Amino acid sequence: MMKYTYYGQSCFLLEAGGRKFLFDPFISPNKLAKHIDISKIEADYILVSHGHGDHVADLVALAAQTNAQVIGMPEVIDWAESKGVKNTHSMNYGAQKFEFGKLRMVWAAHSSSMPDGSYGGNPAGFVLETAGKTVYFAGDTSLTIEMKLLADLYQLDYAILPIGGNYTMDVDDALIATKYFECDKVIGVHYNTFPVIEIDTNEALAKFNRENKTLLLPAIGETIDL
After folding, report:
1. Calpha distance 187→37 (Å, rounded)
2. 201-210 vs 171-181: helix crossing angle, rounded to 10
3. Could you give the C-alpha distances from 64 to 29, 70, 91, 181, in angstroms and in order?
């Protein structure tokens, strides 16, 4: 059993095999997540897709609080270490075995800079294989043809995709992406946090339903079983 807890924007926690994986920690600056007490968040690993503030705002604080291993691009890790984070693992596009299973960083079409304006390296997504599940988190990305490679490499159980548009894929692009990597179960992220990425969630759900696909949109703070 894998559990998914949504913390808003692109921040979420996956729990599987007795381990906790926190992705893109941006909670305390998000007004929609003001009811989340970050002092209660636990993590064994913190995975960072890129350097933008809406993905790393709480990284340093939560890394110190949890002593989780922070995994990200070398430039993101260099920045985190400059802020005092010690338990780190830098990666680039490629796969690596860990004690929890296997992790691959994959292409994302976006940009990346750290909150202080320093270079954030390449943006990325992740494919996490752990506890019998394979989950793809796209990070911030537009629709890209590289997503078709995932169908050759994996049988994905779930895809976690940005659906807000403007900076990333929108709902229609996300539907196309599901055909590229051949996974019909999607969890939407990166929407409704700011006016420019607000969407009609009922319309989004209806579009997926018409294609006989599943779109999950848990509330901020909600935990669901995957």
Report:
1. 23
2. 30
3. 18, 10, 20, 36
Question: b/e map of 31-44 (b: 16 or more CB within 10 Å)?
Answer: ebbeebeeeebebb
Instruction: Give residue 12's pLDDT.
Output: 98
Q: Is residue 5 classed as helix, strand or coil in its secondary structure?
A: strand
* Cα torsion angle, 61, 64, 68, 69, sign: positive
CA 106/CA 136 separation, integer angstroms: 9
Which DSSP category does 146 fall into?
G
- Rounded CA-CA distance 128/177 in Å is 18
Binning pLDDT at 50, 70 and 90, where does residue 34 land?
Answer: very high
Residues 169-177: contacts with CB under 8 Å, at least 24 apart: 169/138, 169/141, 169/142, 169/143, 170/199, 171/199, 171/203, 171/204, 171/207, 171/208, 172/207, 173/142, 173/143, 174/143, 175/207, 175/208, 175/211, 175/213, 176/143, 177/138, 177/143, 177/147
Beta strand pairing status for 45-47 and 69-72? parallel
SS (H, E, C) 151-181: HHHCCCCEEEEECECCCCCEHHHHHHHHHHH
Location of structure tokens 């929609």: 32
**Model confidence, pTM:** 0.98
